[in-house]
Amino acid sequence: MSEMRLHDPAGNRLYLNAEERAAFLVAAQRQPARNRTLCETLHWTGCRPSELLEITPARIDLSGGTIAIRSLKKRKDASGSTKIMFRSAPVPAEFLDTLNTAHGIREAQTSRRKTAVPIWDLSRVRIWQIVKRVMIEAGIPDAPHRSPKGLRHGFGVHATVQGVPLHMLQRWLGHAQLSTTAIYADAVGKEEQDIAARMWG
């Protein structure tokens, strides 16, 4: 398995910085409802596109302010059997209002048939295309971080800068090992300056 990292071999950043994440969110809010909520879900949860495709109305907790995300990375339990794991990602109430309005989440939750239907009936390639187009509209440069993975890594770096404990971030991102999550503590540039400013202050 390849080691996760925040820079490619040429030193290019593989994550969106704070300004790019903010610009992405603004550009996403100008999109049609389906694309907007898709982009906002990736932004607010840090989930993988394949995980986003598994989200159904039943996994949205409108009153609790969370989205249950099924981890699609295969994990084995003590007996060697593959186990299904879910994690709860907290999201802003305003975003849940948007999600509910766009997709009728509350209404779908009252119907057993609709509650198990994925919210976004798309392929991973289509998600990649939508995200890339929104990133282009947001003015994010043509570089390795202009991708859904760059958005996920940006979520991790942002959470670390904001002081989210690594064990909590590990749970939100669905990492099996804390050592994987720890790469976000290696944030650089403005993110590193923000962390250092706390030490200086």
Automatic annotation (TrEMBL):
Molecular function (Gene Ontology), one example: DNA binding
PANTHER family (alphabetical): INTEGRASE_RECOMBINASE PROTEIN MJ0367-RELATED, PHAGE INTEGRASE-RELATED
Species of provenance: Roseicitreum antarcticum
Annotated keywords: DNA integration, DNA recombination, DNA-binding
InterPro entries (UniProt xref): DNA_brk_join_enz, Integrase-like_cat_sf, Integrase_catalytic, Tyrosine_recombinase_XerCD
Name this polypeptide is given: Phage integrase family protein
Tyr recombinase domain mapped to chain residues: 11-198
CDD domains in UniProt: DNA_BRE_C
Domain of life: Bacteria
UniProt similarity note: Belongs to the 'phage' integrase family.
One GO BP annotation of this record: DNA recombination
